[in-house]
Amino acid sequence: MGKKLVHTPEGVRDIYGDEKEKKTIVERLLHERITAYGYRDIQTPTFEFFDVFSKEVGTTPSRELYKFFDKEGNTLVLRPDFTPSIARCAAKYFMEENVPIRFCYQGNTFTNTSDLQGKLKEVTQMGAELIGDDSVQADAEMIAMTIETLYHAGLSDFQISVGNLEYFKGICAEAGLDEETELELREYISGKNYFGAEELLERTHVDKKDKELLLKVSDLFGTVQILEEAREAASNKRSRHAVERLEKVYQVLCDYGVEKYVSFDLGMLSKYNYYTGIIFKGYTYGIGDAIVKGGRYDKLLTRFGKDSAAIGFVIVVDDLLAAMGRQDVVITGMDAPVKMYYTEADFKEKLQKAKSLRMAGKKVELLHE
Question: What is the pTM of this model?
Answer without folding.
Answer: 0.91
